[in-house]
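pinned: reference chain
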Amino acid sequence: MVPSHRRSAYTLLEVVLVAAILVIVAAMAVPSLDGMYGYYKLNAAVDSVQAAWALGRAHAIEEGVPYRFSVVPGQGNFRLAPDTGDYWSGSTPPVADPDNPPAVVEDALAQGVTFAMGGNGQAAEASPNDQTSLPVGQVDAGSWSTVAVFLPDGTASNDVEILFQVKGAMPTRMFLRALTGIVTVKTDGQP
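pinned: its structure tokens
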């Protein structure tokens, strides 16, 4: 009798067992990944507003013109532009120096991220599927609400506190000190 050589392979039972283990591990990992995703969206929103504030302060100092930072209440849209009527009336303003145009930033927070002014915490937490921003560039000129004005001497018109919220992450507060222009960020629940 000739010995038959068996080809080594996985049995159906082994394949099903490994697939079941992978499904269980994935089911345990998904909630943790959702929490991380919210954390990254929240940090991206804080970073974008902080960058806009730094840009506004720098341009106000360099150009000797006040810069206004405004938001659309109840939405995630924000805008930074010189604090003159030409830039806030909805029409395209003339550029005096084409080689050195003023900074105009119009953007929106990441989807699902909301913010409340004054740190009152009254903003409703949005789900990741909610549309919390209007399309960028399509905001009515009368919808903007001024949060801060950066002055040419490096200060701001007032102290500002913004509360950022997103589902799956701890709320984060961002503070702007008017006299110094210093921005600090603190996550709720941290000392």
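why pinned: Confidence is low (pLDDT under 50) at residues 119-130. The first strand starts at residue 67 and ends at 71.
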